[in-house]
Design a protein that fits this description.
heterodimer, A: 111 residues, mainly beta, five-stranded mixed β-sheet, four-stranded antiparallel β-sheet, B: 118 residues
Chain lengths: 111, 118
């Protein structure tokens, strides 16, 4: 079952940073935070994941609070192609456990 | 990243017929694959977990005789929607689990199959 809460929608100006929040107040110590996004009528795309340290890759940065009860996905310079639904998922990694998707945040990047 | 190929991209069928959807991992071996369905403007709903060489594990409320899953090899899983009806019309998405170390487990997705049952 989804263990995360995300705002249903957000807007972001093109070229600005998009900050997408996720609450996971019941997260366990061995659960990772994963972020995926889904562009309309396509399969979800992996973005980033982390346990407790902040993570950065070529797509985005993941900031996890010290108590791990929330996190923020940052797209540093949003483009129109970043318009998508963004899903935050928490799960125990490396166990074969399922990935359950919540309702996600629909991000619209505005020109 | 790993590539997951899903075919067909879309299919239209008559009510009562069966439809098979294929999911292949192209550049890695996937011992575990997952099948999801998605209705318009809704999130992905996990249908079943497919493990190579064993029976699939279905989520509660998903009919195993309706949605047949076969995972006979490490690179191929199939979902067959048997005796399809209009209410089975949906977007079906497969995914494969990639485990490249203790902290590097990820899920990669196919491009999805839009099924329309007339």
């Amino acid at each position: 079952d989804a263990k995360t809460t995300q705002p249903p929608s957000m807007d972001c100006a093109e070229g600005r940073a998009a900050n997408l929040p996720c609450n996971h107040s019941t997260i366990s110590g061995n659960e990772y935070v994963y972020w995926y996004r889904q562009i309309h009528s396509q399969g979800p795309q992996y973005i980033i994941h982390g346990l407790k340290n902040n993570e950065t890759n070529e797509m985005a940065s993941l900031i996890i609070t010290e108590d791990r009860k929330s996190s923020t996905l940052i797209l540093p310079h949003a483009t129109l192609r970043d318009t998508a639904v963004y899903y935050c998922i928490v799960r125990v990694a490396n166990t074969g456990n399922q990935f359950y998707f919540g309702t996600g945040t629909s991000l619209t990047v505005i020109p | 990243g790993a590539v997951v190929s899903q075919h067909p991209s879309w299919v239209i069928c008559k009510s009562g017929t069966s439809v098979k959807i294929e999911c292949r991992s192209l550049d890695f071996q996937a011992t575990t694959m997952f099948w999801y369905r998605q209705f318009p403007k809704q999130s992905l709903m996990l249908m079943a977990t497919s493990n190579e060489g064993s029976k699939a594990t279905y989520e509660q409320g998903v009919e195993k005789d309706k949605f047949l899953i076969n995972h006979a090899s490490l690179t191929l899983s199939t979902l067959t929607v048997t005796s399809a009806h209009p209410e089975d019309s949906s977007f079906y998405i497969c995914s494969a689990r990639v485990d490249r170390g203790l902290t590097n487990e990820k899920l990669f997705f196919g491009s999805g199959t839009q099924l329309s049952v007339l």
